[in-house]
Amino acid sequence: MIWSGEEVMKWIKSLLGSRIIPQPNGIDLTVAEIYTFASSGKISINSRKLPKYRKLEGTEWHLPPGGYLVRYGEWIKIPPNAVGLVLPRSSLLRMGAMLYTALWDSGYEGRGIGLLHVINPNGIFLEKGTRIAQIIFVSARSEKLYEGMWKGEGTSSS
């Protein structure tokens, strides 16, 4: 079962000072930071090495075609009886961009990220605080909660 936006709202806190407005089935997520990829990364059977990132300065960005890491402006806590799914807003798709995300496990908390793929050959403009995605919660039965390396990401300590 997909949760109502009112229920999801109880688990999310805006860090940009914007008001969280529930949608019928989720909460909009905003752009807080955008990064480019500055090196390669590696995933192997027993390890992973993340690429280096370069943060784009400013509060409005013109993004030419390519891939970008987007950090959301909301602190999200996934309750023990749900998983989170993040979907792009349709206006982002209409601009010629896609947002790729992964499953947010029960117990995850932090400021998550998405992979923004700008396909529009002319690029797109984004402003800090712009709503680009929506997170929904789907009820789940979990034997254990997320305790992985990304728990608490996006804080000053990670």
Tell me what the structure shows:
By secondary structure, the chain is mainly beta. The chain has a single domain (5-41, 49-139), classed as Deoxyuridine 5'-Triphosphate Nucleotidohydrolase, Chain A. It is 7% helix and 43% strand. It has two helices and 14 strands. Strands 2, 5, 7, 9, 10, 12 and 14 form a seven-stranded antiparallel sheet that branches. A hairpin with a 4-residue loop joins strand 3 (42-43) and strand 4 (48-49). The longest helix has 6 residues, at 90-95. The chain is globular. The mean pLDDT is 92.
Looking at this protein, list some descriptive labels:
158 residues, mainly beta, Deoxyuridine 5'-Triphosphate Nucleotidohydrolase, Chain A, 7-stranded antiparallel beta sheet, 3-stranded antiparallel beta sheet, 2 helices, globular
